[in-house]
Amino acid sequence: MAYAALSSLAQTTHRILNHHQYLISHDEKHQITLLREKVIFLREALHKFPMQASSLEARIRGSANQAEDMIEHFMYNQIWNHYYSTTNNPHHLHHDLEKAMEEINSISREAADFTTEDSAALGDSTTVRASSSMQLAGGVTVGLDEDLLKIADSLTGGSSSCQIIPIVGMAGIGKTTLAQKVYHHPLITETFMIRGWVTVSQDYKPQNIFSDLLACFKEGGIERHGQSNESMDEKVHKILKGRKFLIVLDDMWSRNAWDDARNAFPEDCNGSRIVITTRLADVASYSSSHLHQMRFMDQDQSWDLLKKKVYCPPDLEEIGMEIARRCGGLPLAIVLVAGMLSETNEFSWKQVAEKVGSAGELEKIISLSYTNLPHHLRSCFLYMGAFPEDYEIRTSKLIKLWIAEGFVEVEEEAIECLEDLVKRSLVLVKKRKPDGKIKSSGLHDMVREICRRRGEEENIQHRVSMAQPDLILLARTYGSTLRSIVCSRLISASWLGALGVFKLLRVLDVVDVNQYPLPAQVFDLFHLRYLAFACPNEIPAAIFRLQNLRTLIICPRNRFRRYSDDVIYLPLEIWRMPLLTHIVSFYSPLPDPEGVASPLNRLLELSVGRRFICTKEITEMIPNVRKLGITYFGGKFRENYQLHNLVFLHHLEKLKLVMEDGYVIPRNVWPVFPESLRKLTLNGWRFPWKYMETIGSLPNLQVLKLRNGACKGRTWETKEDQFPSLEFLEIDKCNLKKWVTEGSHFPRLKRLVLFDCSRLSNIPNDIGDIPTLELINVDYANKSLVECVKRIQDEQRDYENYVLQVHCMHRPNWKMAREAVMTAATISVGVCTIV
User: Fold this and answer.
1) What is the share, in percent, of the chain residues with pLDDT greater than 90?
2) What's the mean pLDDT in 233-243?
3) Which residues pair with 520 in a beta bridge?
4) Three-state DSSP class for residue 788
5) Which residues contact 18 (CB under 8 A, 6 or more apart)?
6) How far is CA 504 from the centre of its chain?
7) 507: left (phi > 0), else alpha (psi -120 to 50), else beta?
8) What is the pLDDT at residue 817?
9) pTM of the model
10) Is the pLDDT of residue 764 over 80?
11) Contact present, 42 and 101 (Cβ < 8 Å)
12) Predicted local confidence at residue 371, as pLDDT
């Protein structure tokens, strides 16, 4: 993409001009400065005049990539000569940049012709921006009420034998939406003892279906340890045996998938149910003779849904109804069109009406939604198409990848881009955090397919089918466009050792590569900005050579190793990598910084395990960290933690402290928190409830999660003037028996979560008087607590407070959705997906 290529080149020119380690002549500096000015000009032209600049996109992308390749090769050669003290093959930029500047100057002159025209030319632009009036939060069930009742009746009534209920219909008609609404309906959650949701997809594997179910059950607190020689389907069968269950098999594509899964579900004649969603009628009829066929929306329903998704001024209602009609009754088409209808004038709405076309074909609508994206969003969107089907993309990872690719420069910009794509309904929100921010997202299958196709057409991503891809062949085929490699399949050592051919690689994610340590060639990839790998026996000091690295993720090679006493320290050289912004090391602590000259001023996130000692010197070396996660294993080091020094991290906003060994922590080593803290998670620390007075004094704390015995004791008594900003409170698994509090003690609380607190039989009625309280979530198994919170809700309704909602949930639904495991390998920008 032209815009992304220009953004990346702008960052590269800034780096070479502002880092003194690169030796450039006065003339070269002048050339690069002029180049940067042209780049910024062209980027603005693309943004402000998208239609006029569209004819220049291919030339812009080609010249920008060529110029960046020249500069990065120059930077690479200089660093190589520095490390190995060589002076061979001296390389100068002056001549190469002259050639690149000829084409860029030519493009700039053409762009100047339309950018100097009257600003009224912007009226010809078909770029449509997101409207702040769009209402996209939460699901909309327009036209699904009757379907919802029918499915709910089939699930709760009828025969006691295990029934299969297929929901069938074309893509975008609302099958999954309907299944989700039924699955989370209070009547259904109360009816079924255990529930599970699995997305099957086209490239399913039987073991993945069962492993996902087992993971779902385990996260719900239901687990059965079978014999070591038991298959996963046998384990699923034993867990479900004797229980009334509801299983959803979403997005099933073949009869074989049902044949592979069916034997895991026992027949106990207890009213258990299995819901299947599929696009294929023969798959639906194969599993059951009683199908639920999804219908197209009628004209009134289509118009109602469009109005719920975007504000329509009264004078545009006639055009709006015509747009809704042309969407052909497909909910997904209506939602996507709503994402384009941001301008509240007759001209822009007429444009959309004409382009949707009378046929209302979904593919055309999705393509139109992409065409109407601003240039700065296109690369971000196409990049998401490289992830596998139904993949749940964690926002934290996606942001790091976008930054590494050069699409955006900072996290705040990336978050805005993601939110914008969601507002346009091109990206689906899978999970949100308590503060409403997006935790994970994904693409609808149809959107992903068109996204992937456009990515291949525009050379952003490629799909290659090969068991062990030939890196030399890939290098010849894609050349300098190959900037990213993300693998989750096991790759041989020889394959990994050939990575040196990609001198300009920016992203390398080889967490599941079948060998360690990393070969020496990896540390010659000077332009790496994102590196994720499985932890070997040691982390070499050569990692220091990756001077452009922003994100470093080190995962345990064996997940059980996280709980062992092994300690593998990060090398001292980690303190000499000034561009690092994120360090996630599951069990490698930071080394003592003694003798190190400069702090990691750009470090924003640090997540470490094992023997992290929070000395004053450490806090001075990471002064701007915003997010910190620390996990401790083994009680013998508990007096050396020095967590009172956390108070010196004046920019810390999110903190997670986990204690795995269950020891009672002496008072003299209790942490002291900075006032900047907004989110705090405590797990397993067994603090006395009295310690909550200290936490309650934090002026900016919005989210507090107390998990797995974070606090010990039977009584928690709160006081006035505590928790002034707290909006979310979760208490999960504790022995609390009595909670003495008043509504005025939590003046801004919006959501209260109480789970696995078996001794807590009631909470004060004053909780219901909190004016901001919207939701109370409690454990369905705690019957007395359920009755208590329902009484509070009924009392509030007597006072005409219908805002407060109460949700009672079984354990399997508490944290049922886990992040999907990536089943394909990806090589990107071009993003080349190896399947």
Assistant:
1) 26
2) 89
3) none
4) helix
5) none
6) 26
7) beta
8) 32
9) 0.73
10) yes
11) no
12) 79
How many whole angstroms separate alpha carbon 481 and alpha carbon 24?
25
* pLDDT on residue 639: 57
Mean pLDDT of 196-214: 86
Backbone dihedral angles phi then psi of residue 442, each to the nearest 5 degrees: -170, -175
pLDDT band at 124 (very low <50, low <70, confident <90, very high): very low
Closest CA to 364 of 392, 388, 340: 340
What letter represents residue 756's amino acid?
Answer: D
The secondary structure of 395-448 as a DSSP string is: HHHHHHHHHHHTS-SSHHHHHHHHHHHHHTTSSEEEEE-TTS-EEEEE--HHHH
- CATH class of the region 152-293: alpha beta
Average pLDDT over the chain, rounded to an integer: 80
- Output the six-digit token pair for 54: 């569209």
DSSP label at 179? H
H or E stretch including 394? Answer: strand 393-394
Q: Residue 270: helix, strand or coil by DSSP?
A: coil
730 has a pLDDT exceeding 80: yes
- As separate numbers, helices (DSSP H) first and strands (DSSP E) second, the chain gives 26, 29
User: Any idea where the domains of the chain sit in the sequence?
Assistant: 2-124, 152-293, 299-371, 686-803
Strand partners, 218: none
Residue 382: left if φ>0, alpha if ψ -120 to 50, beta else—which one? alpha
642 class by beta-carbon count within 10 Å (0-12 exposed, 13-18 middle, 19+ buried): middle
Q: Quick one: tokens of 825?
A: 């390998």
Contact 786, 761 (CB under 8 A): no
Which of 311-325, 466-480, 609-623, 641-655 reaches the highest mean pLDDT?
Answer: 641-655
The one-letter amino acid at 418: L
Kindly report, residue by residue over 278-291, the tens digit of the pLDDT: 988 888 888 887 88
pLDDT over threshold 60, residue 834? no
| Phi and psi torsions of 130, nearest 5° | -65, 145
Please report the DSSP string for 330-389 in residue order. -HHHHHHHHHH----SHHHHHHHHHHH-TT--HHHHHHHHHHTS-HHHHHHHHHHTTSPT
d(CA 126, CA 132): 19
Question: Which pLDDT band, with edges at 50, 70 and 90, does 831 fall under?
Answer: very low
Give burial (CB, 10 Å; 0-12/13-18/19+) of 720.
exposed
Mean pLDDT of 522-529: 87
What's the alpha-carbon Rg for the chain, to the nearest Å? 29
In this prediction, residues 284-304 reach a mean pLDDT of 86
Q: How confident is the model at residue 86 (pLDDT cuts 50, 70, 90)?
A: low
pLDDT at 87: 57
Q: Is 551 helix (H, G, I), strand (E, B) or coil?
A: strand
Confidence grade of residue 466 (pLDDT, cut at 50, 70, 90): very low
Query: Which stretches of 485-594 are DSSP H helices?
Result: 493-497
Give the CATH fold of the 2-124 domain: 1.20.5
Among 16, 4, 5, CA closest to 103: 5
Q: How far apart are CA 763 and CA 779, in angstroms?
A: 13
Helix (H) or strand (E) holding 284: helix 281-287
Long-range Cβ contact pairs of 201-209 (< 8 A, separation 24 or more): 201/251, 201/253, 201/389, 201/390, 202/253, 202/389, 203/388, 203/389, 203/823, 203/835, 204/253, 204/257, 205/823, 206/233, 206/260, 206/261, 207/232, 208/821, 208/823, 209/249, 209/257, 209/260, 209/261
Cα gap 527→530, rounded to integer Å: 9
